[in-house]
Design goal:
Blueprint (H helix, E strand, L loop, with lengths): L11 H4 L3 H8 L5 E5 L5 H14 L8 E5 L2 H15 L7 E4 H12 L10 E2 L2 H12 L11 H13 L20 H14 L2 E2 L1 H14 L1 H10 L2 E4 L7 H11 L8 E5 L14 H4 L1 H4 L4 E5 L1 E2 L4 H11 L11 E2 L9 E6 L2 H17 L7 E5 L5 H11 L3 E3 L9 H14 L4 H7 L9 H14 L3 H10 L5 H24 L1 H11 L2 H7 L5 H15 L5 H13 L9 E5 L8 E6 L10 H23 L2 E10 L1 E4 L2 E4 L4 H5 L5 E4 L5 H7 L15 H6 L14 E4 L3 E9 L2 E6 L3 E6 L3 E3 L1
Parallel strand pairs: 1-7, 1-8, 2-3, 2-6, 4-5, 6-7, 9-10, 11-16, 11-19, 12-14, 12-15, 13-14, 15-16
Antiparallel strand pairs: 17-18, 20-21, 20-24, 21-22, 22-23
The structure holds adenosine-5'-triphosphate and magnesium ion.
Magnesium ion binds next to helix 3.
Keywords: ATP-binding, DNA-binding, Helicase, Hydrolase, Isomerase, Nucleotide-binding
Pfam families: UvrD-helicase (PF00580), UvrD_C (PF13361)
Catalytic activity: ATP + H2O = ADP + phosphate + H(+); Couples ATP hydrolysis with the unwinding of duplex DNA by translocating in the 3'-5' direction
Amino acid sequence: MDSLIPTGPAPDYLNRLNPEQRAAIETTDGPLLVLAGAGTGKTRVLTTRFAHILLSGRARPNQILAVTFTNKAAREMRERVSALLGEPAEGLWLGTFHALCARMLRRHAEYVGLTSSFTILDTDDQLRLLKQVLEPYRIDTKRWPPQAIMGVIQRWKDRGLVPDAITAAEDTDFANGRCAEIYTDYQQRLKQLNACDFGDLMLHMTEILRKHPDVLAQYHRFFRYILVDEYQDTNTIQYLWLRLLAHRDNQPSNICCVGDDDQSIYSWRGAEVENILRFERDFPGAKVVRLERNYRSTRQILGAASGLIAHNEERLGKTLHPGREDAEGEKVRVISVQDSDDEARMVGTEIERLRADGHPMAEIAILVRAGFQTRAFEERLITLGLPYRVVGGLRFYERAEIRDAIAYMRVVNQPSDDLAFERIINVPRRGVGTTGLQKMHMHARERQIPLTAAVLEMLGAGDIKGRAKEQLAALMRTLGATRDMLGREGHVVAIDHLLEDSGYIDMWKADKSPDAPGRLENLKELVRSLADYENLGGFLEHVALVMDTEDKSGADSMSIMTLHGAKGLEFDTVFLPGWEEGVFPSQRTLDEGGLKGLEEERRLAYVGITRARRLAMISHAANRRIYGNWQSAIPSRFVEELPAEHIETRGDTANSRRSFLGRPAVFGSTPFPLVASRRVHDVTPSTTATSGMKVGVRVFHQKFGYGTITSVEGNRLEVAFEKAGPKRVIDTFVEQV
Ligand code: ATP
Ligand code: MG
């Protein structure tokens, strides 16, 4: 083909690569797999290859198909390619699998019965639609919640299975073997609405390529080169789509995939690490290039990460050498702290110190295993006035479940808070429709009373009918009971009851969508954090102030994100908190995934450490309030597995319980009081809760002062307080003195 851009002498961009990387770029034709560890320049190879293909005149910008794992990565690659080209790169086929498929599907929508203006449904819409589809089936939705059925359909789509391809053997587990039928109807409804869900983008496009050789041939002519980043995390349908596009008749498949089996962390979303292992079989004549020099991290960080991942059995095994000879670096720090507040304080102090030394904030990241962990750090960073961003997610207090729970609290605190009441009146569903709500508003306006009072009056007068009548009466009773309980049992217990009794917690327990467990964890964390405030009013004021400090972060802010979200990124300094058994490795993954799950968690730890260029700080707390209870936490097995010569241990967790109790019980900063969700309390007995709580023991309670235990019943104590008189309290609320 004619050269688009004149080729000059040995281009400078190739000189910035090592020989292996250069080989990976100069073998432009034929299938190529770059299989290499973290930070070895895989993404750099892909980007440079992109530019090299263009600069050497092998293809025009729109003749290269490049797939990245996230939109952010796509943006970055576009910028890097533009920088190499010296001009903005336009019209590229560069994006995530979904983005690329959406673009293609708009051109061929009629083949699957859609028009080019089809809508892409979000998850809420998907579920609403599925519920409509489910109606005639009369399925026991308690047993087979729509979210779970949605999950089954999505997994089929991930595997490239259209409704007709579902065999009876596939369809036994759910809804009495009627899932395939439901799937068919659901797809039918989507078509009627001229809509697609996320999974359809890939599925439809793959079907079109499979069934219409003319379309496929068109893309074969079109795409001369295919580039794929993070290949280890492709799922079956993505793999099928790639294979169709890459196999051109009688021509080499110019497909280049880069990946690292040690960084496969999305098997829970259907990713198949095997795809990388069978590359050579799928693309005969494939070359495999291994890169062993890591240019990102210091020798110490690499040593720690490599030592850890060596504990995985299922891996290809790769060697990593430091690429920069000068980069010995500091050992990875492993810091033990007392509890999560201590951990947040420690991290905050370190960040202040780094900032004072001129460390750019944008080069610092806190990487957590689970969303709930961000709260303590966010609070601390706000207190210290350090700008931060929660990347790939919402800040703690912006999350829907947290806003709902706070709305409940606001109504308890201030019954005339109409806005808050409106937010929760039908969450969970209580049969209140738009017209019903309008009537309540009218009543409130006429009588010039708050909405809650209007509801009470209307209930009294029999003006609310049907399911709403009972449900709202129950809600009003719960709100009233909570207000009573505030004085008697304290705000933590009261709010815990409120969220349980209002059905709010149950709503998320019944929700089978993948983010529901994370939301429940966030709610537990919220209740836990209430203990840090004197009363409900104090807490709500704090939250209002926290919300107010949002979005003042300029460009130079540090990042908080999950380990999953950090894949492919790098920072000078990385904090890795919460390395405790149950948190990381996550208990849920261990329970559901067994040894495979554990290995995936270990890969996640490897991803975490290898994000750091200069310094990695791992921390673990001796005590953690899990499910609202203090439990003494065991350091993550990953801490043990880190090779001793690359780490430096700090802090002292020996006999943590004693030092923990030895701390002065200063109001507001002490780890007490604490609360347990009543139900969970039974299944997760706290190791510290009942110890020493016998009749006759003298105790201190934050609110009631000193007293002596007169009776013990499970975790409930009766205490004769010296000033406040006899009270029933939960054992975790008192401290033995
Ligand atoms: P990950 O597995 O985490 O995705 P990766 O293999 O994609 O990592 P890159 O992000 O491409 O690695 O590169 C890691 C860092 O090393 C980047 O800052 C990159 O610019 C730098 N780098 C890569 N190759 C070289 C080289 N030959 N010389 C100097 N620096 C390099
Ligand atoms: Mg990369």
